[in-house]
């Protein structure tokens, strides 16, 4: 019972962080493509929403599975308890560090990178739109004043 519970908690916690990574990456790819200096079309932009969701799902559900599979293989090779020995999670502190803390840390660092770059891209889009709107406003005022002088 405790073994299975620990394994499932580990899997779904890693899946949670993997899905947060998917969302951060998706937002990053959408906003950075809008603000890139040279026009580029990435494979992600050209994919249909269904294909993209399938790829994201494969990553977000398979990556935690592979991490747990490596942990289980190491558990049987080195004959030590990974789950359910003393607590209903990863029992060994080295395994906890390698198979939970490190993957979560890497995903969080990637999320921070993606989110910072998304924010930078959003700000640059906002600046570009403000600049464009100011030009439109000034040109419409100029054209209005010109037409009123001739009438």
- What is the H/E string? HHHH
Oligomer: single chain
Shape: elongated
Q: Note poorly predicted spans.
A: none
What would you report as the Rg, rounded to the nearest angstrom? Answer: 25 Å
Number of DSSP-assigned strands: 0
Explained architecture:
This protein is an all-alpha fold. It has 4 helices and no strands.
Short description:
With 151 residues, the protein is mainly α. The chain contains four helices and no strands.
Task: Break the fold down into its secondary structure elements and pairings.
Blueprint: H1 2-35, H2 43-46, H3 49-77, H4 93-150
Helix pairs in contact: 1-3, 1-4
Question: Which features does this protein show?
Answer:
151 residues; mainly alpha
């Amino acid at each position: 019972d405790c073994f299975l519970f620990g394994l499932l908690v580990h899997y779904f916690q890693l899946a949670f962080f993997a899905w947060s990574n998917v969302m951060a990456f998706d937002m990053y790819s959408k906003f950075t493509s809008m603000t890139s200096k040279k026009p580029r079309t990435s494979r992600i932009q050209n994919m249909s929403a269904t294909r993209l969701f399938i790829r994201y799902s494969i990553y977000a559900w398979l990556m935690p599975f592979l991490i747990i599979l490596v942990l289980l293989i190491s558990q049987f090779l080195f004959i030590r308890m990974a789950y359910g020995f003393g607590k209903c999670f990863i029992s060994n502190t080295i395994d906890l560090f390698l198979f939970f803390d490190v993957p979560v840390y890497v995903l969080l660092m990637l999320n921070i990178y993606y989110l910072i770059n998304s924010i930078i891209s959003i700000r640059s889009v906002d600046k570009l739109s403000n600049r464009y709107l100011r030009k439109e406003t000034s040109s419409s005022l100029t054209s209005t004043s010109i037409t009123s002088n001739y009438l």
